[in-house]
Amino acid sequence: MPLSVEIEFSGGAELLFNKIKKHKIELPDKMGVANTWTIRDLIGWIKENLLCERPELFVQGESVRPGILVMINNIDWDLVGGLDYVINNNDTILFISTLHGG
């Protein structure tokens, strides 16, 4: 059964995603195993399926680049496992850019 997740982009990050701030997505079962998606997996999926331009401004390796805050259900991702957090059905994951031009 696919996972239903809401992904939000804010603080300018939405500009990399066609100016769309909220995305309601369904993540398919991975290799026939349900509920095995981590934030690390999600970032790769976002890069391949949602990111419209300039991936270097969002992704660095398997993570987001420094300057992007990640909140999972309104909690800093560092407090719930970071990249290894296992995504649950109906989670809300927010990416906030703190990088601004000048």
UniProtKB/TrEMBL annotation:
What is the protein's name according to its record?
Ubiquitin-related modifier 1 homolog
Classification lineage: Eukaryota, Metazoa, Porifera, Demospongiae, Heteroscleromorpha
CDD domains found in the cross-reference section: Ubl_Urm1
- Record keywords, A-Z: Cytoplasm, Isopeptide bond, tRNA processing, Ubl conjugation pathway
Q: Does the keyword Chloroplast apply?
A: no
List residues, modification 1-thioglycine: 102
Q: What does the entry give for GO biological process?
A: protein urmylation; tRNA thio-modification; tRNA wobble uridine modification
UniProt lists the family membership as follows: Belongs to the URM1 family.
